[in-house]
Design brief:
The protein is of the alpha+beta class. The protein is rod-shaped, with a radius of gyration of 42 Å. It has two domains: 1-76; 79-205, no CATH class. The chain has helices at 4-76, 190-193; strands at 79-83, 93-102, 107-109, 112-119, 122-127, 130-134, 139-141, 145-151, 155-172, 175-184, 204-205.
Protein backbone atom coordinates (compact mmCIF):
# COMPACT_ATOMS: atom_id res chain seq x y z
CA UNK A 1 0.00 0.00 0.00
CA UNK A 2 1.38 3.40 -1.01
CA UNK A 3 1.98 5.97 1.65
CA UNK A 4 -0.35 8.97 1.05
CA UNK A 5 2.37 11.32 2.27
CA UNK A 6 4.78 10.07 -0.38
CA UNK A 7 2.11 10.42 -3.05
CA UNK A 8 1.49 14.02 -2.01
CA UNK A 9 5.22 14.75 -2.11
CA UNK A 10 5.54 13.24 -5.57
CA UNK A 11 2.55 15.21 -6.79
CA UNK A 12 3.94 18.45 -5.38
CA UNK A 13 7.33 17.74 -6.98
CA UNK A 14 5.72 17.04 -10.37
CA UNK A 15 3.62 20.18 -10.14
CA UNK A 16 6.70 22.22 -9.22
CA UNK A 17 8.61 20.72 -12.18
CA UNK A 18 5.77 21.47 -14.59
CA UNK A 19 5.42 24.94 -13.18
CA UNK A 20 9.15 25.50 -13.62
CA UNK A 21 8.96 24.27 -17.19
CA UNK A 22 6.04 26.56 -17.87
CA UNK A 23 7.85 29.53 -16.36
CA UNK A 24 10.95 28.68 -18.41
CA UNK A 25 8.85 28.52 -21.57
CA UNK A 26 7.25 31.84 -20.69
CA UNK A 27 10.66 33.45 -20.10
CA UNK A 28 11.92 32.03 -23.38
CA UNK A 29 8.86 33.35 -25.16
CA UNK A 30 9.30 36.78 -23.61
CA UNK A 31 12.97 36.75 -24.60
CA UNK A 32 12.11 35.88 -28.19
CA UNK A 33 9.49 38.62 -28.27
CA UNK A 34 12.02 41.11 -26.88
CA UNK A 35 14.55 40.08 -29.54
CA UNK A 36 11.96 40.42 -32.30
CA UNK A 37 10.92 43.84 -31.01
CA UNK A 38 14.55 44.97 -30.86
CA UNK A 39 15.12 43.70 -34.41
CA UNK A 40 12.07 45.60 -35.69
CA UNK A 41 13.13 48.75 -33.89
CA UNK A 42 16.62 48.42 -35.39
CA UNK A 43 15.22 47.98 -38.89
CA UNK A 44 12.95 50.98 -38.40
CA UNK A 45 15.81 53.16 -37.21
CA UNK A 46 17.93 51.96 -40.13
CA UNK A 47 15.20 52.92 -42.58
CA UNK A 48 14.83 56.32 -40.92
CA UNK A 49 18.59 56.92 -41.13
CA UNK A 50 18.57 55.82 -44.75
CA UNK A 51 15.74 58.22 -45.57
CA UNK A 52 17.48 61.09 -43.78
CA UNK A 53 20.79 60.29 -45.47
CA UNK A 54 19.10 60.02 -48.85
CA UNK A 55 17.29 63.31 -48.32
CA UNK A 56 20.53 65.03 -47.28
CA UNK A 57 22.38 63.61 -50.27
CA UNK A 58 19.63 64.73 -52.65
CA UNK A 59 19.78 68.22 -51.15
CA UNK A 60 23.57 68.38 -51.57
CA UNK A 61 23.35 67.13 -55.16
CA UNK A 62 20.67 69.74 -55.85
CA UNK A 63 22.92 72.54 -54.53
CA UNK A 64 25.88 71.28 -56.60
CA UNK A 65 23.68 71.12 -59.71
CA UNK A 66 22.50 74.71 -59.20
CA UNK A 67 26.11 75.88 -58.78
CA UNK A 68 27.15 74.07 -61.99
CA UNK A 69 24.24 75.62 -63.92
CA UNK A 70 25.18 79.11 -62.68
CA UNK A 71 28.85 78.59 -63.61
CA UNK A 72 27.96 77.34 -67.09
CA UNK A 73 25.56 80.25 -67.60
CA UNK A 74 28.25 82.66 -66.42
CA UNK A 75 30.79 81.24 -68.88
CA UNK A 76 28.34 81.27 -71.78
CA UNK A 77 27.33 84.88 -71.17
CA UNK A 78 30.83 86.35 -70.79
CA UNK A 79 31.02 89.58 -72.79
CA UNK A 80 33.98 91.90 -73.46
CA UNK A 81 33.41 95.59 -74.12
CA UNK A 82 36.34 97.73 -75.26
CA UNK A 83 36.24 101.51 -74.73
CA UNK A 84 38.61 104.45 -74.31
CA UNK A 85 40.94 104.19 -71.31
CA UNK A 86 41.05 106.14 -68.10
CA UNK A 87 43.76 108.72 -68.82
CA UNK A 88 46.90 108.85 -66.71
CA UNK A 89 46.39 105.49 -65.00
CA UNK A 90 49.44 103.26 -64.46
CA UNK A 91 49.59 99.64 -65.62
CA UNK A 92 51.93 97.76 -63.25
CA UNK A 93 50.69 94.24 -64.04
CA UNK A 94 51.78 92.19 -67.04
CA UNK A 95 51.17 88.77 -68.61
CA UNK A 96 53.45 87.25 -71.24
CA UNK A 97 52.48 85.09 -74.20
CA UNK A 98 54.07 83.69 -77.32
CA UNK A 99 51.77 84.30 -80.29
CA UNK A 100 51.66 83.90 -84.05
CA UNK A 101 49.89 86.11 -86.57
CA UNK A 102 48.74 84.56 -89.86
CA UNK A 103 50.16 86.62 -92.72
CA UNK A 104 47.79 88.94 -94.50
CA UNK A 105 44.84 88.23 -92.20
CA UNK A 106 43.31 90.84 -89.92
CA UNK A 107 43.31 89.85 -86.26
CA UNK A 108 41.26 91.69 -83.64
CA UNK A 109 42.47 91.89 -80.05
CA UNK A 110 39.71 93.72 -78.28
CA UNK A 111 38.92 96.38 -80.87
CA UNK A 112 42.55 96.73 -81.95
CA UNK A 113 42.90 95.61 -85.57
CA UNK A 114 46.25 94.05 -86.46
CA UNK A 115 47.51 92.80 -89.83
CA UNK A 116 51.00 91.38 -90.44
CA UNK A 117 52.55 90.90 -93.88
CA UNK A 118 56.11 89.72 -94.55
CA UNK A 119 58.15 91.48 -97.23
CA UNK A 120 61.68 90.16 -97.92
CA UNK A 121 63.45 90.35 -94.52
CA UNK A 122 61.01 92.85 -93.08
CA UNK A 123 57.52 92.66 -91.67
CA UNK A 124 54.90 95.26 -92.46
CA UNK A 125 52.69 95.67 -89.40
CA UNK A 126 49.39 97.50 -89.62
CA UNK A 127 47.80 98.34 -86.29
CA UNK A 128 44.57 100.34 -86.41
CA UNK A 129 45.59 101.76 -89.82
CA UNK A 130 49.07 102.81 -88.65
CA UNK A 131 51.49 100.92 -90.92
CA UNK A 132 55.12 100.37 -89.90
CA UNK A 133 57.98 98.15 -91.01
CA UNK A 134 59.48 95.83 -88.41
CA UNK A 135 62.64 93.74 -88.30
CA UNK A 136 63.35 90.79 -86.03
CA UNK A 137 63.81 91.95 -82.42
CA UNK A 138 61.88 95.20 -82.90
CA UNK A 139 59.08 96.24 -80.53
CA UNK A 140 55.75 97.87 -81.17
CA UNK A 141 53.18 99.10 -78.66
CA UNK A 142 49.44 99.56 -79.22
CA UNK A 143 47.31 102.37 -77.87
CA UNK A 144 45.81 102.01 -74.43
CA UNK A 145 42.33 100.56 -74.16
CA UNK A 146 39.80 99.85 -71.43
CA UNK A 147 38.25 96.37 -71.15
CA UNK A 148 35.08 95.63 -69.21
CA UNK A 149 34.17 91.94 -68.93
CA UNK A 150 30.64 91.18 -67.76
CA UNK A 151 28.58 88.02 -67.29
CA UNK A 152 24.92 87.14 -66.81
CA UNK A 153 24.08 90.41 -68.53
CA UNK A 154 24.94 92.68 -65.62
CA UNK A 155 27.66 91.25 -63.34
CA UNK A 156 31.05 92.95 -63.89
CA UNK A 157 33.96 90.55 -63.55
CA UNK A 158 36.71 92.88 -64.71
CA UNK A 159 37.24 96.55 -65.44
CA UNK A 160 40.81 97.38 -66.40
CA UNK A 161 42.90 99.48 -68.74
CA UNK A 162 45.32 97.51 -70.89
CA UNK A 163 48.05 97.92 -73.50
CA UNK A 164 49.76 95.44 -75.84
CA UNK A 165 53.52 95.27 -76.34
CA UNK A 166 54.64 93.20 -79.35
CA UNK A 167 58.20 92.01 -80.02
CA UNK A 168 58.83 90.52 -83.47
CA UNK A 169 60.61 87.13 -83.29
CA UNK A 170 60.76 86.23 -86.97
CA UNK A 171 58.65 84.58 -89.65
CA UNK A 172 58.25 81.03 -90.93
CA UNK A 173 55.56 78.92 -92.57
CA UNK A 174 53.50 82.07 -93.36
CA UNK A 175 53.29 82.92 -89.67
CA UNK A 176 54.77 85.93 -87.91
CA UNK A 177 56.04 85.07 -84.43
CA UNK A 178 55.85 87.55 -81.56
CA UNK A 179 56.30 87.82 -77.84
CA UNK A 180 53.16 89.55 -76.54
CA UNK A 181 53.01 91.39 -73.21
CA UNK A 182 49.59 92.46 -71.99
CA UNK A 183 49.95 95.27 -69.45
CA UNK A 184 46.97 95.98 -67.21
CA UNK A 185 46.00 98.45 -64.51
CA UNK A 186 44.61 95.61 -62.35
CA UNK A 187 45.65 92.04 -61.67
CA UNK A 188 43.70 89.92 -64.15
CA UNK A 189 43.33 86.10 -64.09
CA UNK A 190 44.75 84.39 -67.16
CA UNK A 191 41.41 82.86 -68.16
CA UNK A 192 39.87 86.33 -68.38
CA UNK A 193 42.81 87.81 -70.28
CA UNK A 194 42.46 85.06 -72.85
CA UNK A 195 38.98 86.40 -73.61
CA UNK A 196 40.80 89.26 -75.34
CA UNK A 197 42.93 86.91 -77.46
CA UNK A 198 41.43 85.28 -80.57
CA UNK A 199 42.19 81.60 -81.17
CA UNK A 200 43.81 82.46 -84.54
CA UNK A 201 46.97 83.78 -82.83
CA UNK A 202 47.61 80.55 -80.87
CA UNK A 203 48.63 82.29 -77.63
CA UNK A 204 50.77 80.23 -75.28
CA UNK A 205 52.80 81.06 -72.14
CA UNK A 206 56.34 82.34 -72.61
Amino acid sequence: MTDPTVQDDNKATEEARLKGQEEEKQKQKELELAKEQARREGEKEGRERGRKKGSGLKGLLGIILVIIIILVAALLTLNVTITNPVTGISMPFSSNYSVTFPEGQQVNIGNTQITMLAYQNELISNIDGDQQKMVEGQDRTTQERRAVITTLGAVTLLDTDFQLDLKYKGQRDNLAYFDLVIRTSKQVPDYLLRRLLPSSINAGPV
